[in-house]
Amino acid sequence: MDYYHISAEDLGRDARVPLVCAADSAEVFFDLALEMVSTIREHNAHGEKTVFICPVGPVGHYPYFVKMVNDQRISLKDCWFINMDEYLDDNDEWIDAANPLSFRGFMARNVYDRIDPELVMPEEQRIFPDPHDPGHIGRVIDELGGVDIAFGGIGITGHLAFNEPQPELTCEEFAALETRALDIHPETRATNSVGDLGGALEDMPHRCVTIGMREILGARKVRLGVFRDWHRGVVRRAAYGEPTAAFPATLLQGHPDAKIYVNDVARHQAY
């Protein structure tokens, strides 16, 4: 495809999703953290709630976020963090939070436990999709009046959260999918095993629970970060390819306020 040959200098020109080209990963992650903090501060000043959809991948923005919150004494008491997904075991139960792959464990250790207890939100405002009650996410979002920003990344198959491709669906059908448990594609398992388990593919879970495309695309803003070598092809297809359920990130092209932050590595021509 021609879009894989778009040069670093031309990347972003005529893109169907706005691309923000940063100098490096640090700038990408700092900008994402700053948008989180700025939104919370603005909402706090007006006595308003803040609702984010949050990923565990990328995670580079969290150290900046935690430091800003603690240093600037920003209260998170009126914030709701709705995490995108979690791995499941073979019985479709959450993997144990002590498992190094657990997204619940990561958020506890690296975000919530590192924020001053006087500032952090109550535990009931730290929400993960539940395979036994997938509708809970949608109900919470409706009760809170919607999601302010959905943060995240893009997977090797174009997946957002764990919304894996379903090419048999129309874009409209795929965009309407809600929180659910599903099988993880082999490509995703292989890619994640390289990054998270040193290539121990057989130990990667086969199942997950994920927030739906409906929840992600329903957010008032979507902010994604891409930063790996293989993101060179992914970001180009997301921003220039035809919208299709075969590559979920292309559905962002119809969102009114989506941006993809691209570092120096992902900016280079795919091949």
Describe how the helices and strands are arranged:
Blueprint: E1 19-21, H1 25-45, E2 50-54, H2 62-72, E3 79-83, E4 85-88, H3 103-110, E5 126-127, H4 135-144, E6 149-152, H5 171-175, E7 180-183, H6 186-197, E8 207-210, H7 213-217, E9 221-226, H8 231-240, E10 258-262, H9 264-267
Parallel strand pairs: 1-10, 2-3, 2-6, 3-5, 6-9, 9-10
Antiparallel strand pairs: 4-8, 7-8
Descriptive report:
This protein is α/β, with parallel strands linked by helices and 271 residues long. The chain has one domain (2-266): Rossmann fold, CATH 3.40.50.1360. The protein has nine helices and ten strands. Strands 1-10-9-6-2-3-5 form a seven-stranded parallel beta sheet, sandwiched between helices. It has a three-stranded antiparallel beta sheet with strand order 4-8-7, with no helix packed on it. Strand 2, helix 2 (62-72) and strand 3 (79-83) form a beta-alpha-beta unit. Helix 1 crosses helix 2 (62-72). The chain is globular and about 50 Å long. The N and C termini lie close together (11 Å).
